[in-house]
Design a protein that fits this description.
Elements lengths: L11 E4 L28 E4 L12 H26 L9 H7 L18 H7 L6 H16 L6 H27 L5 H23 L6 H18 L17 E2 L2 E9 L8 E9 L4 H12 L10 E2 L3 E4 L10 E2 L4 E2 L5 E2 L8 E2 L3 H4 L15 E4 L13 E4 L19 E7 L12 E9 L4 E2 L8
Antiparallel strand pairs: 1-2, 3-16, 4-5, 4-15, 5-14, 6-7, 7-13, 8-9, 10-11, 12-13, 12-14
Helix pairs in contact: 4-5, 4-7, 5-6, 6-7
């Protein structure tokens, strides 16, 4: 499947897909003893720059075009170097060389602002289109319990106790504001969840006082599920209009949950696993809607994992010459546009990367922060070329650190694996997706093509 071609003395690989390539919880549905991954092959395309016969001064406009081209290729080459040899391409630069590249990566440092949020649940909660400070002040100390539990010895429990008291105080002081923020059509459900949250905080306080460390994390997850449900109840309706050219496509106007069951081949340590994926249609309605529609068509059932190299896990390339989903009603490949939601914006950007838009300082609503971040694969230099191929990002490196990720704004993230995400690293090429099933949120899918008889 892989081929590397050369042109003169250079061989700059260019990935066709993608170029770097990404209630109480149920018990894990996996059997695991140890983990390992195998590398997979990938289709490569050639891109080379020919040296001109004689140097010619460039006017100002051509200089800008030339710098833009250098920037695109610098990012691609750096990513390729790391994928090929496992060495962070930028990490080995001396100061002089790093300074020379500075114009190609303006203001990257501003993307690093505090500790990155890596928990998929927290990322999904923060991505909801709500503005209710009172519930966020309950959410934050509950999420901080995760860091508190990393502290050694009894100091961890003291820190957790402070977190619980802070959350309880925030709930008591802000309860009326939280109820006031719930959508009118969902008030009863919101109040029910709020009462359960209040009771659960008291139970967690007792757990901490009893010094029952093992019981803290499960209770924390339960309470954060209540918080997330309350926050979702604050969304009255889908908050913006999808552009006219995409309105007839399958659109996910809200959230949906998919279970992906994978049969692991030739691995005595892991036989099968179910990965739970939460898809975010609030921030990527076209991309997430396309995926849900394909899941309902059973498009991925029986398909193999096609790439698993420790950096990403990827699938979605159907058998035959097509590289995406062929819609039977049109007999053409369904194309999904690049779709990026940015913090502070009311609707996503379509068809352009944030780099192309000049939004270097902007942060995406759905960042590549979490292990198991799910995104749409596409051709490197064709933004609107996604279809059915998807990937999950695994590796956090110097090229893709959380909060300063050069993949953010270049590929459309539309969900996160929220259960058993760590076992993605055990998958390898040839493992089989036995099934994908939508377990909740199908009512949020508009224009489902899977229901159309052909």
């Amino acid at each position: 499947m892989a081929a590397i071609t050369s042109c003169h003395s250079c061989s700059f690989p260019n990935f066709s897909t993608p170029h770097f390539a990404p209630s109480t919880k149920q018990q894990p549905r996996c059997v695991k003893i140890s983990s390992f991954v195998k590398s997979s092959s990938q289709t490569w395309k050639l891109q080379c720059l020919k040296k001109s016969a004689a140097f010619q001064p460039l006017d100002q406009e051509k200089q800008r075009d030339w710098l833009s081209l250098i920037k695109k290729n610098a990012i691609s080459i750096a990513l390729v170097i790391e994928l090929m040899v496992g060495i962070p391409a930028f990490g080995t630069m001396d100061q002089a060389n790093a300074a020379a590249l500075a114009p190609s990566f303006p203001d990257v440092s501003v993307l690093i602002s505090g500790p990155p949020i890596k928990d998929p649940g927290a990322l999904l909660r923060n991505a909801l289109p709500i503005d209710n400070k009172a519930i966020r002040e309950v959410q934050k100390p509950l999420e901080d319990i995760t860091e508190s539990l990393k502290i050694a010895g009894t100091k961890a429990l003291d820190s957790v106790e402070r977190n619980v008291r802070q959350a309880s105080r925030a709930l008591k002081e802000g309860k009326s504001l939280i109820v006031g923020g719930v959508a009118k059509s969902k008030v009863d459900d919101g109040i029910e969840k709020l009462n359960k949250l209040e009771t659960g905080l008291g139970e967690l306080q007792t757990i901490v006082e009893d010094r029952n460390r093992d019981a803290i994390a499960p209770k924390q997850r339960e309470l954060l599920n209540y918080v997330g449900s309350i926050e979702e109840d604050m969304v009255e309706s889908f908050p913006y209009e999808v552009p006219e050219e995409y309105k007839t496509m399958p659109l996910l106007k809200g959230r949906a949950t998919v279970d992906m069951k994978v049969k692991v081949v030739d691995n005595p340590n892991l036989s099968e696993c179910v990965f739970r994926i939460v898809l975010d249609g609030y921030n990527a309605p076209v991309t997430a809607g396309n995926f849900v529609d394909l899941v309902k068509r059973h498009f991925y059932d029986g398909m193999e994992i096609q790439r698993a190299d420790g950096f990403v896990v990827q699938t979605g390339d159907p058998q035959g010459p097509a590289e995406g989903f062929i819609d039977p009603s049109t007999e053409k490949t369904r194309i999904v546009p690049l779709e990026i939601m940015v913090n502070g914006e009311k609707s996503p950007f379509y068809g352009e990367t944030l780099e192309e838009l000049g939004l270097y300082k902007s942060q995406t609503k759905l960042p590549f922060n979490a292990f198991g971040t799910m995104a749409m694969a596409r051709e490197e230099f064709e933004n609107n070329s996604g279809s059915s191929q998807v990937f999950w990002l695994l590796k956090e490196s110097e090229l893709t650190p959380s909060n300063a990720n050069i993949l953010d704004g270049r590929y459309a993230v539309f969900g996160y694996v929220t259960e058993n995400e760590d076992l993605l690293a055990d998958l390898k090429v040839g493992d089989v997706i036995e099934s994908m099933q939508v377990v909740s949120g199908i009512e949020n899918l508009e224009n489902p093509s899977y229901q159309i008889a052909v």
